[in-house]
Amino acid sequence: MAEQTKIRIRPSEKQEAPEEVIENRLAGKGENIKKKLDSVLDEIDEVLEENAEEFVAGYIQHGGQ
Length: 65
Prior knowledge:
Blueprint: H1 18-59
């Protein structure tokens, strides 16, 4: 039988391993989503500050509805 040799190529220090690239991309996407979510929550806060009574009145059940 012929003997098989496995060769592993290690990434150089300048190159990132594929897992690290994926993690960095996901971290960037996560930060982006967080910023968008914060923006939406800030907008909701502004609306509630202006129309809090109207907002609450819209969710109160009247007469067993």
